TrEMBL record:
EC number from the UniProt entry: 1.3.1.98
Main subcellular location: cytoplasm
Pathway(s): Cell wall biogenesis; peptidoglycan biosynthesis
Boundaries of every FAD-binding PCMH-type domain copy: 34-198
Keywords recorded for this protein, A-Z: Cell cycle, Cell division, Cell shape, Cell wall biogenesis/degradation, Cytoplasm, FAD, Flavoprotein, NADP, Oxidoreductase, Peptidoglycan synthesis
Signal peptide range in chain numbering: none
Subcellular location: Cytoplasm
Reactions accelerated catalytically: UDP-N-acetyl-alpha-D-muramate + NADP(+) = UDP-N-acetyl-3-O-(1-carboxyvinyl)-alpha-D-glucosamine + NADPH + H(+)
Gene Ontology MF, one: UDP-N-acetylmuramate dehydrogenase activity
Keyword Cell cycle attached: yes
NCBIfam families listed in its UniProt record: murB, PRK13905.1
Entries under Pfam families matching the protein: FAD_binding_4, MurB_C
Protein name as catalogued: UDP-N-acetylenolpyruvoylglucosamine reductase
Length: 304
């Protein structure tokens, strides 16, 4: 039974009717292709719609959760009670000289392509990272010797009450897979990147090189949330898992990738329960073998 369907008329005062979905399967909105239904899923088109939606949820004491592109998210099989706010339609990207201004829902690949088109260098590392730039700021996403902390000038964020703040790079407290955004539950509305002018051909070559490396080493043919675990200090999660003899280990449709042990994949219509059981099994095995605690990088929401 949907306990929040009666809110639709109120939400229609803020959002367009077609941007409000009831009992929406989260399989459609996560890279894992897993997850039960959200009571309501909304996709605001403007910052104002997003802010008003959050304020409505807070005022009405309705549980809500904000997602970008669902690339680093596992939704449990029972789904989410409340409102999922998806930022995918807040995706404008603007170039001003050597700066790129991107809305929080803009996909990293689109920002990377925009940088390439305008011969701006410094963002090549993000060309193949799935998901949105808002999520990338939240996690201080990085790859191939690059991180968001190296390119962010400032970000426009919203707190849990719908207040808008401007945070400069240092104020974002960007560390390994963490930030003030994550710690304080902020939402990234907009990001300004400071890049440098470069040669288009060199930028294109670097993107092509990183894309090739990613395709060779990562199991992109299967649904996943990217690297399942954070890198433990002094170790590599994938090597610990491989050295524990877990490459290819499966529980139901969930499996440790044969191609890269740091990835748990949805190999065959896995459930969230199976993914979580495999995560727990991997954590226990690595702890038993190496006395290292693996921490999940993927975010887990919803109910069983």
């Amino acid at each position: 039974m949907n306990h929040y369907s009666h809110l639709v008329p109120k939400l229609q005062e803020i959002l367009k009717k077609e941007d409000i979905l009831l009992d929406e399967s989260m399989k459609k909105h996560t890279y894992f292709k897993i997850g039960g239904p959200a009571d309501i899923l909304v996709t605001p088109r403007t910052k104002e719609e997003l802010i008003e939606t959050v304020k409505f949820c807070v005022k009405s004491e309705i549980p809500y959760y904000i997602i970008g592109n669902g690339s680093n998210l596992l939704v449990r099989d029972g789904g989410f009670r409340g409102i999922i706010i998806k930022l995918s339609k807040l995706d404008d990207v603007i170039v001003e000289e050597d700066k790129i201004i991107a809305m929080g829902g803009a996909q990293l690949k689109d920002v990377s392509n925009c940088a390439l088109e305008h011969s701006l260098t410094g963002f090549e590392f993000a060309c193949g990272i799935p998901g949105s730039i808002g999520g990338a700021v939240t996690m201080n996403a990085g790859a191939y010797d690059g991180e968001m902390v190296n390119v962010i000038e400032h970000a426009l964020v919203m707190d849990k009450e719908g207040n808008v703040l401007t945070l400069r790079n240092g104020e974002l407290e960007l560390g390994y897979r963490t930030s003030a955004v994550m710690k304080k539950g902020y939402v990234v509305l907009q990001v300004t990147l400071q890049l440098k002018s470069g040669e288009k051909s060199k930028i294109k070559n670097r993107i092509d090189e990183l894309t090739k490396r990613r395709e060779e080493k990562q199991p992109l043919e299967y649904p996943s949330a990217g690297s399942t675990f954070k890198r433990p200090e002094g170790y590599f999660a994938g090597k610990l898992i491989q050295d524990s003899g877990l490459k290819g280990r499966a529980i139901g449709g969930a499996a440790v990738s044969e191609k890269h042990s740091g990835f748990i994949i949805n190999r065959n219509n896995a459930t969230a329960k199976e993914i979580l059981e495999l995560i727990n099994f991997v954590q226990k095995t690595v702890l038993d073998n190496f006395s290292v605690e693996l921490q999940p990088e993927v975010r887990i929401i919803g109910e069983d």
